[in-house]
Write a structure and sequence with these properties.
mainly alpha; two-stranded antiparallel ribbon; 9 helices; elongated
Length: 230
């Protein structure tokens, strides 16, 4: 989309790309860099790959715990700690770089809900991707591809709103936007609170579908276990 410039005082507030002012875009990018989590991480692939490589997957299956549920709880704890540790950084950016943080408690509550649902969707997707280690001994290339695609389509680099229509539609369909763009667009004010009930319903539907798929695919993948070490 073309960059439209308006001359005069306060030009930074008026330059627009894709309907967003320059200030809105910069504010979004700062928030995305501060609060993002799960985009670059390939912990699921690495963990599952290591269990397959050293034979630990057999011990894991013998434990009286749901493997997927226990892994999700670990990810949830990590997410909570990560968000809490990022608040000092957000305050520093607020003081030094004029980061615009919302003053409405409802916005923070909406961000928390979206931030909870989005990573749950991403967890189920990553679980499906990690099932590939049951069929292949190579996980490094898959992890690099996943990280690169996720970085581009998650909204980590730029708001999805300023992407061309086709790319934006694709990015919103893929699960990566759930973990960065949706929660950060709420926190930065790009998504109105009135839109959130619809977004949460979509997230819940997405989560339900991926949860069922992840369980089914994992069950089928475990039938072809080949332990490489011990």
């Amino acid at each position: 989309r073309d960059l439209v410039r308006f001359r005069g005082v306060g030009d930074v507030y008026k330059r627009q790309v894709g309907g967003l002012t320059e200030l809105q875009t910069l504010n979004y990018v700062m928030m995305a860099r501060i609060f993002h989590d799960g985009v670059y991480q390939t912990n699921m692939l690495r963990s599952m790959g290591e269990l397959m490589r050293d034979g630990g997957i057999l011990v894991t299956f013998l434990r009286p715990l749901d493997f997927q549920g226990s892994m999700y709880l670990q990810n949830l704890v990590h997410l909570g700690l990560n968000v809490m540790l990022k608040f000092p950084l957000a305050l520093l950016a607020w003081v030094i770089y004029d980061l615009r943080l919302p003053g409405d408690p409802l916005v923070w509550l909406a961000f928390a809900i979206t931030q909870l649902l989005g990573p749950a969707v991403m967890f189920c997707f990553d679980w499906i991707v990690a099932c590939a280690v049951f069929y292949s001994t190579e996980r490094w290339g898959l992890a690099v591809a996943r990280a690169g695609i996720a970085t581009f389509f998650s909204g980590m680099l730029i708001p999805l709103a300023i992407m061309p229509d086709g790319l934006r539609t694709l990015a919103m369909v893929l699960p990566f936007s759930q973990v960065v763009y949706l929660p950060i667009s709420v926190l930065s004010g790009l998504t109105a609170l009135s839109e959130l009930p619809r977004i949460w319903l979509i997230q819940l539907a997405y989560l339900a579908i991926l949860l069922v798929l992840s369980r089914v695919i994992f069950r089928r993948a475990t039938r072809v276990i080949t332990v490489q070490g011990g």
